[in-house]
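Exercise 3.2. Students should predict the tertiary structure of the chain below and write it as structure tokens, then compare their answer with the key that follows.

Predict this chain's 3D structure.
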Amino acid sequence: MISAPKPPQNPLLVKKTDDKTEWQAGLKLFFELSSWLIGPLIIALFLGRFLDEKYQTKPWFFLLVTAIAFIITCIGIVLKAKEFIREIENNQKPEDKKQLLNKKDDKQ
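Answer key:
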């Protein structure tokens, strides 16, 4: 029986494991980034509103806590993106890494 040729692997896709496919890894990344977007902001909204009502400082605590949450969100997303990029680089084949290094050397 003749088997069909395997399509070339895309180095940007996460390697398959026994029970995990690429779409599951993408879904996991989506939920992690979404939680970094939504989590700190929702907490900041309630905390800022509570502090403003407690200290009668509308809207200063609300604005301050929201700004801090925005900074935390940005830092979290950058760290998660770096982690994902490292994971992609670790999953690349050695031949792919050599090709990328050669391209970088050609540009210089």
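Discussion points: Helices lie at 22-55, 60-91, 94-107. The first helix runs from residue 22 to 55.
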